[in-house]
Amino acid sequence: MAKVNENYLKLRGSYLFSTIAKKVSEYQNSHPEEAKEIIRLGIGDVTKPLTPAVLKALHSAVDEMGNSETFRGYAPDLGYDFLRKAIADEYKERGCDIDPGEIFVSDGAKSDTGNIQEIFSEDSIVAICDPVYPVYADSNVMAGRSGSFDEKNDRWDRIVYMPCTRENGFSPELPEKVPDIIYLCSPNNPTGTALNKAELKKWVDFALEHNSVILFDAAYEAYITEDGIPRSIYEIEGAKKCAVEFRSFSKNAGFTGVRLGFTVVPQDLEISGVKLNPLWARRHGTKYNGAPYIQQRAGEAVFSPEGKKETKALVDFYLGNARIIYDGLKAAGYEVYGGVNSPYIWLRTPNDMTSWDFFEKLLNEYRIVGTPGSGFGPSGEHYFRLTAFGTRENAEKAVERLKKG
Ligand SMILES: *Cc1c(COP(=O)(O)O)cnc(C)c1O
């Protein structure tokens, strides 16, 4: 008799964004007129179209696919050399020495951050920031590493939670129980806070001392505007011996629908004498047939001089929205964080309202959709996330409404 993977049955509720979509559609049904005014600052998806350099690369790659001389079939599992080299060159410009052979091209950072746990032992102790992108916890629940869910505590009992709250400046503290695997996300989704060099060094030193591995999600590195904040963990000495880094073309170049990302697994990274690079190569080669040629040419264009300029303009546009929302909320009397090195604005709910109560209030009274902080982890309770990925007009309108309220 077939049996399901029971770990899947442990997963909590429905995915956060499906719950939000359901609540918004209920509101639309009960308030069809008001619902026309809804401003969506909830889901972390971009809205601006692809840039000219990317479009040009896409069109010409499509043409190549239509010609028998230049047609391409299966891509190399780990990525085309032209893209891996362009990525390695970009690291070089930042002073990080990453070899193309250490770069694995994929369909995005969600797959990679979700799949990477497969190459670690089933009994590994996993540490995650709280709140954070839900993929790290959920993928480890599916793999059977989470233990059972403690309802009273609102936590998995085998996962180490590292609270990131206003009390510690949203910077995770070294846990008492030493984890085997440490997920860090900087700039963090959802708090919008980034780790500075000293903070990141503390983590690298800790991982080296305890033979832990850091899984560093740098999906928002392009949003870093302040000095002293590393864009890559490899800017920290020793990180190549203890860290994997994930990157994406989604939030910088608008590839959320195109799909492209990559992961760096350095050759120096070993656990008890076993190199992780060939393990991940084996996993990739067995379960993945390579990102499409067309997308990889588009990714290469992101690193071209025009591509870099255009991507920076995209990011600057969203950061401009972030500034408007951040300043507007401040002026309206809210306690606000993030928004400076991140497209996310993280606010404390007024009068200690729960995150979901505040969600309802924002939807019903202001017709603004955001994301309840508690959906990202128990320490996200009493916080709320707004994104800067909308239009300028909507950012301004949202702020006007909030100021009036
Ligand atoms: C959006 C996001 C990703 C996913 O990026 P894709 O490349 O589109 O899969 C990964 N990590 C974090 C923290 C994100 O917010």
Attribute tags:
13 helices; four-stranded antiparallel β-sheet; seven-stranded mixed β-sheet; Aspartate Aminotransferase, domain 1; Aspartate Aminotransferase, domain 2; 38% helix; 2 domains; alpha/beta
CATH second-level architecture of the largest domain: 3-Layer(aba) Sandwich
How many beta strands in the DSSP annotation? 17
Low-confidence stretches: none
CATH class of the largest domain: Alpha Beta
Largest sheet, spatial ordering of strands: 2-10-9-8-7-3-6
Overall tally of domains: 2
Helix content class: 25-40%
The fraction of residues assigned to DSSP E strands is 15-25%
Radius of gyration, Cα only, in angstroms? 21 Å
Global shape: globular
- Oligomer status: single chain
The span between the termini is 59 Å
